[in-house]
Amino acid sequence: MRTSHFVMADTGWPGCAKSLKGVILDLCGVLYDSGEGDGVAIPGSIEAVKKLKESDLQLRFCTNETQATREKFVAKLRRLGFDISVSEVFPPAPAAIAVLKERGLRPHLLVHDGLLPEFDGVDKTNPNCVIVGDAAENFSYQNLNEAFRVLIGLEKPVLFSLGQGRYYKETDGLKLDVGVYMKALEYACDLKAEVIGKPSPTFFQSVLNDMGLQPHEVLMIGDDLLNDVGGAQHCGMKGVQVRTGKYRSSEGLCLCVSSGLLRFIPVFFSLRTHGCERLRGRPPCPPRRSSSGVESGELGGDGPRGSGRQICS
Amino acid sequence: MRTSHFVMADTGWPGCAKSLKGVILDLCGVLYDSGEGDGVAIPGSIEAVKKLKESDLQLRFCTNETQATREKFVAKLRRLGFDISVSEVFPPAPAAIAVLKERGLRPHLLVHDGLLPEFDGVDKTNPNCVIVGDAAENFSYQNLNEAFRVLIGLEKPVLFSLGQGRYYKETDGLKLDVGVYMKALEYACDLKAEVIGKPSPTFFQSVLNDMGLQPHEVLMIGDDLLNDVGGAQHCGMKGVQVRTGKYRSSEGLCLCVSSGLLRFIPVFFSLRTHGCERLRGRPPCPPRRSSSGVESGELGGDGPRGSGRQICS
């Protein structure tokens, strides 16, 4: 197995691999590709989760999935073969419900039918805010108009967005994500949405609190440059982007890239055991800030994969 | 009839009323409210068009309407009672077709079914750009995904938006306009759309060219603060916002307001005949620049209608 297929954030990352105490994994695009039925597990990902669980590292799963309740979502992951329990998974909806209670807000929901049961106990009469999730087919013109009319009719309109992703990959192709409709409603009502989910620092912090770890002790692995890697770095965590899921080669300015868990996990554990001296004998590159604001530093490299990719010599 | 129901842009506007040579009218929200069937004419608007046509002023109609071909749209206006001909009406679609020809582009269309015949003669095979119009019910999740996939698959994605309105008023309430979906696709693909229609200076200039007039000789009247009044001012024209259509009292920072054509037209012709000395004897206010960037100056006033409204003393 070559060690050149991954690139990590921050100088000295390989050195700090030994001192890491926890890993947070994104789910869709890292462990599985969604699509018809339960979707499909990404090669090597079931074993990667198993290996991480057998290690001394704490493991959590941080997702912007909002098409199902947490229980149904975890049941799907278990059917795909992952050893994951509900308490290890952090999606935006439960965090949103906590915010509603705290601020005495009653939502109008523009979400997927599968997520509705999560809000069963929430007062939705005479709504004074709107929550938009990844509603998929529910993003009809009529439904978006309804959400818009609720917002435009409020004296102080409040819009919560469960994530801000642009798109994600399903087995039959790329699909628009909630962030696109968040932007649509922001523009229609001339307001700024409050994002609940990645990359919100509050959201990441709630996961760190659950782990009882400091940000610098934790590595986040995801397929979304801004929401996973950028969000993690913004909180002081390390971030690695995998090339599975929605990763596209045109995202050439980020170097925090791994080809996927299949190749990353063995290298990762090798780093924890032996440090980086075995990795081609190359020192890590200095960190750089890409146009997306995400810091990156490459460890090894097998050639450019995107027009803007920097390769260390 | 009181003369205090309108407010106009630019100091000295009343003075220059005499020297105006042309008027451009927005259609939806100024002449009629759209909705079931043909919609309904706004009181006084049929007579206003008649009065303007009988005057020595040139008259054109500038619209971001993209739910029908120009012919069908004008036929509807005529059924509503307006004396308007096809050659006087400027919608975005014909302008877009000219741009496609000029740049050798083949569009994927995300538009209203009623607009499709306008593009009958246009090559749409193997599309290398996307055109989004006010597609209304055609703004399904599936259709927006299709447009997104065309764009994200292009090496140099080009998105044209037929207008950039946030919403408009139909007889059964406010409806989301094309700008909202333009913003959605811009965010999804991380690009900037090219707007064809108001407030594009190129679009306004094509109308001025047809009139054979200079910008300072023409007054634009519309119900949209940014696309009508702002767009006109940006071109050097005068702009007046009417309080009909989608006008909302929360747009309190703009003073370029008239209650509607019903009251505006008699005052306008009085100004052209007598100047402003009869209007309560008040001098026009100095121009101000609102937060929207639209210059405004009030002539007379009968009290604040929005929280941010300035009233001249």
Automatic annotation (TrEMBL), chains A, B:
The keyword Cytoplasm applies. It is found in: Cytoplasm; Nucleus. It catalyses: diphosphate + H2O = 2 phosphate + H(+). GO terms for molecular function: inorganic diphosphate phosphatase activity; metal ion binding; phosphatase activity. Residues 288-297 have a biased composition (Low complexity). Its cofactor is Mg(2+). SUPFAM superfamilies: HAD-like (SSF56784). Its EC number is 3.6.1.1. Its main location: cytoplasm. Residues 280-313 are annotated as: Disordered. One of its GO terms (cellular component) is cytosol. Pfam families: Hydrolase_6, Hydrolase_like. Phosphatase that hydrolyzes imidodiphosphate, 3-phosphohistidine and 6-phospholysine. Has broad substrate specificity and can also hydrolyze inorganic diphosphate, but with lower efficiency. PANTHER family: 4-NITROPHENYLPHOSPHATASE-RELATED (PTHR19288), PHOSPHOLYSINE PHOSPHOHISTIDINE INORGANIC PYROPHOSPHATE PHOSPHATASE (PTHR19288:SF44). Belongs to the HAD-like hydrolase superfamily. This is Phospholysine phosphohistidine inorganic pyrophosphate phosphatase. The lineage of its organism: Eukaryota, Metazoa, Chordata, Craniata, Vertebrata. The gene is LHPP.
